[in-house]
Amino acid sequence: MFYIYYCKEKINDISYNIKIDKEEKEELIQKYSLEKKGDYKEYWENNVCITFSKNNYSFRYIEDIRFEYLLESNKKFLIHEFKEYPCQFYNFYKVHQEEKYQKYQVEKDGIIIELREYQDYLTLTLICDSIVDFYHQTIF
User: Fold this and answer.
1) Is pLDDT above 70 for 45?
2) Residues 51, 54, 55, 61: what is their CA dihedral angle, to the nearest 10 degrees?
3) CA-CA distance, 4 to 77, in Å (whole number)?
4) Which of 49, 54, 86, 104 could form a cystine bridge with 34, CB 3.0-4.6 A?
5) Given pLDDT bands bounded at 50, 70 and 90, which one contains residue 16?
6) Cα–Cα distance for residue pair 137/133, rounded to 1 Å
7) Cα(16)–Cα(26) distance, integer angstroms
8) Is there a contact between 107 and 87 (Cβ–Cβ < 8 Å)?
9) Considering the entire predicted model, what is its pTM?
10) CATH number, position 54
């Protein structure tokens, strides 16, 4: 599976800025015809991603394969390739990271376009099963 983040800049060899100004929210929603999916909370404990929404929850184990920074046609992307496995539900108390966001999403040609609105910034991500899908897309 691939998450392809729209990237503002490469900070150094291991750090990237994927934060988009909140002022761009309405323009991105219109441009990609995104639909509001609701409030989400995401917790990370080691490599387990725990996601809660109003009607659903999931526990997924994430195995990172690689990260790649890509500059294509003056657009910058951070490509995250990983494997995802179901994880048994368990009770948790302390986590390494906790995030709250509004999710906007749409699927086009087998690619999910996802906008997340955090308190101070946005992120824009393409989600696909094959990197070939990304290279054949005309979304960006």
Assistant:
1) yes
2) 0
3) 6
4) 104
5) very high
6) 6
7) 24
8) no
9) 0.92
10) 3.20.100.10
